[in-house]
């Protein structure tokens, strides 16, 4: 610190104090800028120590503290010693402490008064110097700004148009109401340019809250709008900078005023200037002074539109409504030029510029995201600004009707839009076609967002120009699909930006969005005209082998057909869409008959697999289209209803034949050599391998239903399909993009049949599952360093092995699986088990985890109780099936083994007397023994629980170690009295002899059954129900129209 005395500061000290004060003001600039008035700013400074945690770290505060200590240190010490000794100064009152007394005496001293006077005089000099320096800086900055304006030439419209001045040196000074009144008068359009520019410069230095709260704001706002529209870029840019600064740092009640002023100014500009789109090859140069000014203002608006959604929910709804309404008022502006006809010019609308700046309507998507703003948007669109939606719809219709697929103009526009930015260079010229296309893309994105919501769909139907009938939702979707047909394949480019702007991609985004939402899909996609439009090219191709591209209405058949298949697959994944495909017979096939969509799709798929369509000559594209349409069929045949409709076509045989043919080609794929560049033929063979896997995957999905699994078995490809499934199962992959689950359901379905279990076993799935279970139960995670010991499991089946347990239960849920995996196989029952020995089969797993009947087996388990409980729970599930129980009992005497374990669990096991030791394993064994010994439901038997209860007797249910089991577990059944209804059904069944030839027998049977079941169903005997079921099945199997599989299908299998 520089030297200073009590009477004055040195020049160096004043300079240092000035620097520190300047630094403090910079640090707290944000606090002051948020103050709505000068009085509030003073309050902030007065209470800064209470509100700023860094107050004592500021250098200015440290400087003042040191100055006070040097000025009053001696006085404070003297007063402290005097008060402590009690000499010379008495304490004024009992409540005064030593600190209070010293403080009071110090403030009454002459040194304190001299220090305060010196500090006050010095600070006045410092503050006055700061103000003078501030004014000098402003003048210097104005001079530099003028020079830079003369030096600048043709800057791009996006350069710094929304940046606000943030440096404290550039201005932050409070301004009085009188000064604002003077500035408003200086900004009058009649004043000279220099006077207006200086007023704007001063206005930018004032807090926005002070400006908007002044009494002359209405006149100031009018003058600012006039300056904003001034052809002089100096004035308009300065106003824009003031607007940008206000929008970036003010609350919504302030920014809404600025935003609405900006919107109204733009609206006046468009109405006054009436700019036109260029004709022919001419374009709009964004460096034109009037276009640059409009683009800068539109960009500032668009930036605010995208940011305001993050905070407008914290303010009253009327603020948000003002912003939305001013935006819609501007965008709905349509100058007198109209849409334009041939030979007439079309007006440049605000929508052209907003589309150029935000082509995919990000601002509108953000406004529609939240319910808070979405409600206001829909209300305003419905009541006042429906013309916005009409214009967007009209733009899509105009693009559809004017698009010439032969000339391929859209591809050229997309290619030019892709190269907007090349290095540091930027485009400055946009043709009318490019502006119209950006308007179309923007409109399509807006409409796609509207269709997502119920209130958006309620805006339809909409009446548009040159159309007699209003455009409905269905009409709009049909138009979008037609646009997808007309537009060619996106140009081959490494840039994903170009592909994202292609009509095909945009339409597919809208269709996929609609398909993913149930209500949207029902109103927009599940309509007969939409399905007819999607299937029209397919029906055209099916009508004859030699069909031209033009007749099929396809400009790029491979790409378009894949998109059609993708949309159809999304529809078929839902219950309502599937029903529409299967049962609506309103389409005309190639033979002229009315059939459903499912029949058209499967016929087309068969023709693709047979390669009977010369339109698709390229093998790679043919495989892509074929795979896409097989996937559509897959959404149908993986349900029972869809499989029944598609079965007459033998699609499983067509796919299997294509797979067998492809697998022969894939065997020729050479072994890849590291470092070698694959040749063309090698790449083609790799594509063949991918196609083979696609066919296997689709064949595998026949196993989603029991009848489909039988069809898969008949193809002879079940082993290869299961091996493919196992490879994907180990990688934890989902079944497809429509089915988000894994292959667990498929494993259960396959394991329900003997051939399926054999295929699972031969693929290695069973062994991998057993090893996984053993690893979870008995082996730790060897690849991780053990820092903490593993927690003791609290549940019978720990969470770590629950998934493996469920997989094993799914595998062994069928008696066919149990027989194939355990039939005629004895348990090892070794005399010694190596601790590192792992089971590899279901038999080994039963031997180690269920039949734990020796000390050797017990000692071979690291986690005996947990592992044995796992095995007993698995046994409990397997015993629920009577066939599996009989197999286990006949081969392994499971019940005797369990009884012996219970006998060994008695306190005096040698004599067989004593009490049972109640633990988790004995309770589990008791439950299984009762389940195995007594068959029936809850009214026929009483199953003991697996958990203990609180109280003195935790397990009151009797345990046993020999048969017969206690009578406690057997319930006495009430006697059933057979009534008249039983005899009525019996009489009906006995009276029908030639029921195979009686077509009405089934209807009569159904009526009799419903009559009995709705009156007194509890008196119908089991024997009568068995006879009824047997005769009903016999009648259905003898009817060709009712049976699903003919009897011949089962012969020889």
What report would you give on this structure?
Pfam families: BROMI, BROMI_C, BROMI_N. Residues 140-149 have a biased composition (Basic and acidic residues). Residues 178-860 form the BROMI middle region domain. InterPro entries: BROMI_C, BROMI_M, BROMI_N, PHAF1/BROMI. There is one protein chain. With 1053 residues, the chain is an all-alpha fold. The chain is 61% helix and 2% strand. It is built from 50 helices and eight strands. The strands form four sheets. It has a two-stranded antiparallel sheet. Strands 2-3 form a two-stranded antiparallel sheet. The chain has a two-stranded antiparallel ribbon with strand order 5-6. Strand 5 (587-588) and strand 6 form a beta hairpin. Helix 31 runs parallel beside helix 34 (680-700).
Radius of gyration: 43 Å
- Helical fraction: 55-70%
Estimate the strand proportion.
under 5%
Task: Quote the distance from N terminus to C terminus.
Answer: 104 Å
Strand order of the largest sheet: 1-4
User: In terms of structural class, how would the helical and strand content be classed?
Assistant: mainly alpha
- The total count of strands amounts to 8
Instruction: Tell me, rounded to a whole number, the average pLDDT.
Output: 81
**Shape label:** extended
